[in-house]
Amino acid sequence: MTKEPSAKKAAAEIESALKPLSRRRFLKTALWASAGLAAVAAGGFALLGRSAHDNDAVPADLAHIEPAQYRLFNQLALVLLPTAGTALPPVAEIPVARHVDAILGALTPDIRKQLAGGLALLDNAAIFSHGKRLIDLEPAEAQAYLASWVNADSVIKRTLGQVATKLTHTGYWMDERTWPALEFDGAVSRKWGLPSRGNQPLPA
Q: Is residue 32 part of a domain?
């Protein structure tokens, strides 16, 4: 039976995906990444870290997602969800970043803070290979860059690439307006009014 996407379920999957990043390893990597970015800035390349999207408007009522993350997921949606020419609702009509905000709200504050650092790393690390941040890359460049992270040998890069991709996809598909194109009309349990029993063991 197809399950209806939910912020709580997606958050649990994200937490599970982030487990390979122990706190010590993650913070150590983030520290070195921050040092690298600081060195670039000190070398006179601070302007590379600026983006035209830094001035994009951000809703004032976001509860958990940071402005930079909101802008990042808006761009990731355009890159990872090419809906043009399909029966799917255009990305512009689906508040992907807002849905990601709801998913992040189901994460613990500690994990949410670590993820914020990881997403900043994903965005800014593109400066070293492309001379500009991920949110400023052309679609083909951004797709290749993301693929290099998703398939990287590094656990840190691979996990962050996969988590960012999963959050973007979930933020789109959890919106009910995307379901008719898949001939999905919601979870049977909701239509039949069945109470949730959480995760139950399979019958013997």
A: no
